[in-house]
Design brief:
The protein has 471 residues and is mostly helical. It has helices spanning 3-26, 37-69, 72-77, 81-110, 113-148, 153-168, 170-185, 190-213, 217-242, 258-289, 294-306, 308-330, 334-370, 375-388, 392-407, 411-433, 440-443, 446-464.
């Protein structure tokens, strides 16, 4: 090699090294590997929780618009079994995406910028592949799936229409989630939240335009959803492509790194299986609940709207700790991960205590908002509320330990806890003790029982220390 060529190559290497050094300085403020742990957790968690609130808001708006302007058959068509099919497919793919996000957060914490860049560009390819697969399955097997779960004839056509249009727009949804996962994994939970707020209001406007203005029925609701998802996809990639930070997305560099793809799938499949098991076990539970009188089913449905506040809070804490754990694992700060576990438990238990107090003080008021004048429904709803709210404290450790242990790459532990502790316990309880029972509280005892067993499994594994490398 000539001297001139050697100098040119070395100069190119120096420039590349300088570029990555500058980028590492730019990212210093985004890292959550330093500073007060409790403050970092709360600051990172709040935008995630608010984002979930806005997602819930636009799901509610969909239901209100359809129910009021199209009819009860259309409302039934976009809920129930339709959402079960959607949640099953999207849940599995969301789990796969979680595997990629864990790897990205670990590289970010370790300051491995080249590996980080390869991982996020591979993640984009993985999301497109998953999106295409779900689109093909969703469009071609929607009718079959709806027949399988015995969808009533009067809502079947609308349900098929909704699903086919919805699945045609799945790739923008996956790409938004990819961009949001990249940002959260690198310490930015605020940008995904702001994008969700914009998408929420866009969805509300488009619902009104397509359903109320253009009278497109359930097709209009589906079109509004995929249009708002497309808007969120564009908005999330604007900062990712224009940033000067290490997580910059360059379309020319989108490619697959086979080794990283294999790791993403290895970490993501257990998370995906977890996500699929919940709707399957809940479907079994609903088969028992549906044997009770209508007022009991209505009370349970209303309770599902109310306790969503708890699930949004605890899920956002789990997501925050997942990133917190991943970054600190990459940085080799294992003691910080352990401290964040206990501080996360304390923070989430305080939030849970506040929610339990509010639910118990204002439960009757909340139920009357959903079902005014139906005293039998309200009375049953209050029985459910007073029975389940104390049990929330049993679930909190599940989300905390799952986030922490998953962040270091042990996603199979969460899968085992969900498979045996949650789903297995519920099925055994229901089929062993609840066949033919007229005691509704006995049926839903499967919730606190499964939360306790799963939390115990997580606690024993966490205390064993096997989830962390030996110092």
């Amino acid at each position: 090699m000539s001297e001139g060529l050697v100098l040119a190559v070395n100069d190119k290497r120096r420039k590349k090294h300088y570029c990555f050094s500058m980028l590492s300085k730019v990212t210093a403020k985004s890292s959550i590997t330093e500073g007060p742990i409790w403050k970092g957790i709360i600051t990172f968690m709040l935008p995630i929780m608010l984002g979930m609130f806005f997602q819930q808001l636009y799901n509610t708006v969909d239901a209100v618009v359809v129910g009021r302007y199209v009819g009860k058959e259309a409302l039934a068509a976009v809920g129930g079994g339709t959402m079960f099919f959607i949640n099953l497919l999207i849940g599995f793919c969301g789990g796969l995406a979680n595997g990629a996000a864990i790897i990205i957060s670990q590289f970010f914490g370790a300051k491995k910028w080249r590996e980080l860049s390869k991982a996020l560009h591979t993640f984009i390819v993985l999301s497109i592949i998953m999106g295409l697969a779900v689109t093909l399955v969703g469009v071609n097997f929607s009718a079959f799936a709806l027949r399988l779960i015995k969808t009533p004839p009067d809502i079947f056509a609308n349900a098929v229409t909704y699903l086919k249009i919805y699945f045609l727009g799945i790739i923008p949804m996956f790409l938004y989630n990819t961009g949001a996962s990249i940002l959260r994994a690198t310490g930015d939970s605020k940008t995904p939240f702001l994008v969700l707020v914009i998408a929420c209001f866009a969805n509300i406007f488009l619902d009104c335009l397509f359903v109320v203005g253009l009278h497109l029925g359930v097709a209009g609701v589906a079109l509004a959803t995929i249009a708002s998802e497309a808007i969120s996809m564009v908005l999330i990639f604007i900062p990712l492509t224009r940033t000067d930070k290490v997580y910059k997305v360059e379309f020319s560099r989108i490619s697959v790194n086979p080794a990283l793809l294999k790791r993403m799938v290895k970490l993501g499949v257990p998370s995906g299986i977890c996500a699929m098991m919940y709707p399957v076990s809940n479907l079994t539970l609903m088969s028992f609940i549906n044997t009770f009188p209508t007022y009991t089913i209505a009370a349970w449905t209303a309770w599902g709207k109310l306790d969503a506040l708890f699930w949004m809070s605890v899920s956002s804490m789990g997501m925050a700790l997942n990133t917190f754990s991943g970054q600190n694992f990459g940085a080799g700060k294992y003691d910080r991960i352990k401290k964040s576990t206990w501080q996360g438990l304390l923070i989430m238990n305080l939030i849970t205590l506040a929610l339990v107090v509010v639910f118990r003080l204002f439960g009757r008021f909340f139920y009357n908002l959903f079902i005014p004048g139906e005293e039998d429904v309200v009375a049953m709803g209050l029985r459910i509320l007073f029975f389940l709210t104390p049990a929330f404290f049993l679930y909190v450790p599940n989300e905390i330990f799952a986030g922490i242990i998953g962040g270091v790459g042990k996603t199979h532990i969460s899968m085992l806890a969900t498979l045996f502790g949650i789903c297995g316990t519920r099925l055994v309880w229901l089929f062993s003790f609840c066949r033919g029972t007229e005691d509704f509280l006995k049926v839903i005892t499967c919730y606190p029982l499964s939360w306790f067993i799963s939390a115990l499994f997580f606690f024993v594994y966490f205390k064993s220390g096997k989830w962390l490398p030996k110092d």
